[in-house]
Specification:
About 70% of the residues lie in helices and about 5% in strands. The protein has five helices and two strands. It has helices spanning about 1-25, 35-60, 65-90, 100-110, 125-140, and strands spanning about 60-65, 120.
Length: about 140
């Protein structure tokens, strides 16, 4: 429980930093020098990793071993989500477009276990994990998955 409290504390801290960062607008038109978008991308990835770690911690049948496992799982899920969003033009967040997005999100979580060796997920665990991630996504503003 101490680990979960620590994770939630840092998630709250990161969200406050992310909110303060969104207030600062970069007027530079050169995209390579736009540090605000890179900072937001990094923060979105960190928040996604925390959300996936919390979901794996509280969901039966969804297990990730170690910090690097959580980081690689977040990376794998993000890449798979990006590919699905670009190829099929579907919002893959658990509650993005109803039951289809929820099922696709569960499938993405289940498939990512074959890419990340430190991750093991049952089919039921993937469904519950998508539900937990969707609930956490409702609480934390912004797109986490």
């Amino acid at each position: 429980m101490v680990a979960l409290g620590t994770i939630l504390f840092f998630a709250n801290l990161i969200e406050k930093w992310r909110y303060n960062m969104s207030d600062e607008r970069n007027t530079n038109t050169n995209r390579t020098e736009d540090t605000s978008s890179w900072g937001q991308l990094i923060m979105r990835f960190i928040i996604s990793a925390i959300v996936i770690g919390v979901a794996a911690f509280i969901t039966p049948g969804f297990r990730i071993e170690g910090l690097w496992g959580v980081v690689f799982a977040a990376l794998a899920i993000s890449i798979i989500n990006y590919i699905i969003e670009k190829v099929f033009n579907i919002d893959v967040s658990p509650f993005g477009r109803g039951i289809v997005s929820f099922i696709v999100s569960a499938i993405v979580i289940y498939i990512s276990q074959f890419v990340v060796p430190a991750m093991s997920v049952t089919l039921f665990g993937a469904i519950l994990g998508a539900l937990v991630i969707g609930i956490i996504d409702m609480v934390i503003p912004g797109k986490t998955l």
